[in-house]
Amino acid sequence: MLVDSKQLWLWWSILLFVGVYSTPILNFEYHNYSALSQYLHNMATAYPNMTRLYSIGETLRKHKLWVLELSTAPKSSFGIPSVKLIANIHGNEAAGREILLHLIQFFVTNYTNDETVHWLLENTRIHVLPSLNPDGFEISVEGKCEIGPGRENARFVDLNRSFPDHFQSNTKPRQYETQAIEDWLSNNTFVLSASLHGGALVANYPYENVMENTDMREPYPPSISPDDDVFQHLAVVYASTHPTMHFGYPCNRMDREFQGGITNGAAWYPLTGGMQDYNYIYHGCMEITLEISCCKYPLTHDLPTLWDDNRDALLKYISQAHQGVRGVIRDNNTHQPVLTSGLKIEGRDSYFRTSSRGEFWRILLPGTYQLQVQATGYEPQTIKFTVPQKRLEKHLTPTWLDVNMPPVVRKATVVSDQVLLPTNPPDEASTVHYTATQKMVGLTNGHTLSPALFTEITLTSTDFVKLSNTPEADSHKPEKLLSVEDAGSDGIMWTSMKYMVILNMIFVFVLLFI
Ligand SMILES: [Zn+2]
How far apart are the C-alpha atoms of 306 and 98, rounded to whole Å? Predict the structure, then answer.
């Protein structure tokens, strides 16, 4: 079939239109706030099935802190780990900001033709925050390799010194940016994280601070976390995949060498209020700090090399979220998810928590471990599991470990018209199941209930008793909330009244016979 020139032009125009609008163009150049925002919006529009754009807050200069989530996993899928990547917390450390934009581009454009990218998007939720300090970036100067303007935010506060600190009191006032991160971490369950910096070439892992009164003369001793083996592994994965970081060469004569291109944070230089320790200690998220360029704000023409150097290291680092154990904590009776922040690997004094759906994740190296689970209203559980050394699968896959929690059951005595509750009240805001030993008919306490057979009494809080009837008595459907205190005092009063009546009767009886 012959196609005339008009038709040909029409087809070319359509292809050009689709091409331009399906993949927003990303050049190797620095993007200011408006260009960065526009690019992220274009990406979210062009790839609605694998991206989600949201903001976690706003800076003093009214710049939104944009996050682009990358994933093709359905929202309903259980056990998908969330990873976050943050750059530009120091506004003048700019390379990471552009590298993360290129990482977004790489993921969405290689979903169909790169097997690793495809697998990661199918099995991971990757949240990318290219700039945590857009206010600082706006006043930074390209080519300034050492100290320069823009490190701090618009209030001249170093954001990487403004987080709550476990080791030493941090009096720095909370900033919009740090508050946004704190809320973000509280509302999500991130498993793994990286913060991209500039000014050195090293992967830095927790802890980055030391206890007060520690001898602070150089060389600083390392501050070892309970998951030191995992953190060292994460840092080694990045440094060894990076073409030069693992050499550990100093960036200039004044710097030190880093063996294998990694360092414990405190052993390099201790700092208070850092984001890395905050992630791990307060939220159970494993974060390391990646110093990816000797120059803090490299020239534009260095960006292609920086992207090439960090691309594979970032992909391999993200995949580490799949190393270790994961599962769901459920109620043994109802099979509903149990939410708790009382998860811990035995021998590691570091807690982590479930997601809002009862899911949990923990990165662990091969070995045998015991998971300890504590949840209010449930009997504590300890479950042994193994993370195998060798796996048949091409990609890292975690050990699945679903945990069923038996609710705490306490006995309550039920006597015809009274409920005698145990003297010790349940833990605060807990659900404790009381199993009655006898049947009961009705209740005192001012409530008139139809006679029914109650076999289970559930305390839904410290203040109320919920009565559940047996299936046989279902037709009555009595379900009342009673104050525990009231029920208790009424019980005592009722008992006292009975004694008073008996005493009075004995008294009258004695009088009659005197
Ligand atoms: Zn920095």
Answer: 9
How many Cβ atoms sit within 10 Å of the Cβ of residue 159?
26
Query: What is the 155 CA–ligand 1 centroid distance (Å)?
Result: 17
- If you measure from the C-alpha of residue 421 to the centroid of ligand 1, how many angstroms do you get, rounded to a whole number? 58
| β-bridge partners, 148 | none
Helix (H, G, I), strand (E, B) or coil at 184: helix
Q: State the catalytic residues.
A: 291
Q: How far apart are CA 470 and CA 36, in angstroms?
A: 62
Q: What is the pLDDT of residue 23?
A: 77
Judge residue 139's burial from the number of C-beta atoms within 10 Å of its C-beta, 0-12 exposed, 13-18 middle, 19 or more buried. Answer: middle
Rounded Cα distance between 314 and 335, Å, is 37
Would you call 197 exposed, middle or buried from its count of C-beta atoms within 10 A (0-12, 13-18, 19+)? buried
Cα dihedral across residues 112, 116, 122, 125: positive or negative: negative
Could you tell me the pLDDT band of residue 254, with boundaries at 50, 70 and 90?
Answer: confident
How many other C-beta atoms can be found within 10 angstroms of the C-beta atom of residue 212?
9
Mean pLDDT of the chain: 82
List, in order, residues 6 or more apart from 135 with CB less than 8 Å away. 59, 60, 61, 63, 91, 153, 154
Residues paired with 482 in a beta bridge = 465
CA of 290 to the centre of ligand 1 (A): 9
Closest by alpha carbon to 268, among 286, 289, 247, 294? Answer: 289
pLDDT tens readout for residues 121-169: 999 999 999 999 999 999 999 999 998 899 999 999 999 999 999 999 9
Which burial class, exposed, middle or buried, applies to 218 when counting CB atoms under 10 A from its CB (0-12, 13-18, 19+)? exposed
Ligand 1 mean position, distance from CA 240 (Å): 21
Q: Count CB atoms within 10 A of the CB of residue 319.
A: 19
Angle separating helix axes 228-241 and 303-319, nearest 10 degrees: 140
**CA–CA dist 467, 413 (Å, integer):** 14
Band (pLDDT 50/70/90 cuts) for residue 429 is very low
User: Is residue 56 within 8 Å of 129, Cβ to Cβ?
Assistant: yes
Distances (CA, A) of 410 to 49, 106, 338, 425, 452: 50, 57, 20, 11, 22
In contact, 325 and 371? CB cutoff 8 Å: yes
Q: How far is the CA of 428 from the centre of ligand 1 (A)?
A: 43
pLDDT top residue among 429 and 147 = 147
Cβ neighbour number for residue 35 with a 10 Å cutoff: 12
Contact 199, 88 (CB under 8 A): no
d(Cα 264, Cα 258) in Å, to the nearest integer? Answer: 10
Kindly state the helix (H) or strand (E) to which residue 387 belongs, with its residue range. strand 381-387
Which amino acid is it at 61? R
